[in-house]
Amino acid sequence: MRSPMVRAVRAEWTKLRSVRSTPLALIALLALSLLLTVASANGSQFGYGGPKKYDASSFVHRTAAGDGTFTVRVAAQKSSAGWAKAGLLLKDGTASGSSYAALMVTPEHGVRMMADGKHELTGSGGADAPRWLRLVRSGDRVTGYESADGRAWTKVGTLTVAGLPATAEAGLFVTSPMDGKEERSGPGDLRMHPEATLGRAVFDHVAFPAQGKGDWRQTDIKQTVKKGEMADPVADPKPFREQAGTFTITGSGDLGGLGMGGVGQLGGQPDLVKMALDDGIQIATIAVIALGVLFITSEYKTGTVRTTFTASPRRGRVLAAKALVLGATVFVVGLVASVAEFLVARPALRDNGFAPPLFPELSLTDPATMRAIVGSAAFLALAAVLSLGAGALLRRAVPAVVLMIVTFVVLPIVAQTTSIGFSDFVGRATPTAGLAVQQTHRLLDTVITPWAGFGVLCLYVVVVLGAARWRLTGRDV
Length: 477
What we know:
This protein is α+β, with helices and mostly antiparallel strands. The protein has helices at 4-18, 21-43, 272-302, 304-311, 315-351, 367-394, 397-415, 420-429, 450-474; strands at 53-55, 57-65, 68-77, 85-91, 100-106, 110-115, 119-122, 131-138, 141-147, 153-160, 167-175, 179-186, 189-195, 199-207, 213-221, 241-243, 246-251, 255-257. A hairpin with a 3-residue loop joins strand 6 and strand 7.
């Protein structure tokens, strides 16, 4: 024999299917979310206008013929920028864009090895100066090593540098890319103010092959900027100093390829998963609001609610059954919509510039992405249940729908046109805080964490359903 709750759920499922507005609302949910997702993704273009490869630094060098081992210790490095670089460089001459192999240490991203702006290897992720570096050349193959004490060496990797001639320039280099502080100039408006930086590093224990020729000389390699590319601001380096085998070198610019060594990554990376889901889910919320409100107010309008409460006198159980059926139905349809939005937006975003190597490839199996997708479906389900509670409290469709539309749609729009303080309040203290579950990484304008925001929405649902239950059990129909 089925329990009373199971019977109540079956009865409410039958009602939900029979309500004329149900299929219309669910179809609208899918259609609106996909249409807006396509429009939003196609309108989101990444306007990177800098070079695809950077090769600008202060290069203190001498000529090196043939194979050999090049060793140095980066004794100190100024943290002028997170991706400032200091280390060893083997290069085909001193022109920007010529073939090279480099091994470097950075203030915030450890040891890296690069070749021609095409290849990058990662060494010790947390290592910074002081750090020993070593390059071993054998023909067109260059192997990098690093050490904390100059005795125990760890291999970073080997790269093939086909364009490196037998006689190359070998030396020490310093570079420091432009930096900038990201600021919020208004609700939803982030701006970056780029500034040139000047790196500085101290090198000692310099050991180069004996067949090296010539005195040490400094070349300030300038970035080649093609027509249509934007030039980054750079600072003027000072002449290098050498005293008792210790070199002090300053430099500005950058070295690497787009997406490598921090190139093109000034400022915070946008949350592409949230970009793919956000607009579609917000417009779909309108459909689930209508569905949630009408699921109960239609019974009050037709008077069938009396029959419902006669068949099931425990009104709290009826409300719980409605919430369960409605929430589960919207969650399933919302999950289909969320997955479809992601799959539709992913190629559109890629075509509009949000593509590797500068931006990560979006994966449906990534845990943060899965949480955002499932969380979006759960947000729609809870928005529907909250609307059900509002309908039970007000018992009339129009005021309940208006209240929910104001809460989920109008209030966030108003917040985006007023002040940062009010926008932040709406984002963390109203039901729309639940949209934070779509976040996959923290940005400057993030006002609440994903689970905390989702918890705020859950709290509203519990309070409103509790009030609705109290009203249902405390008053006659």
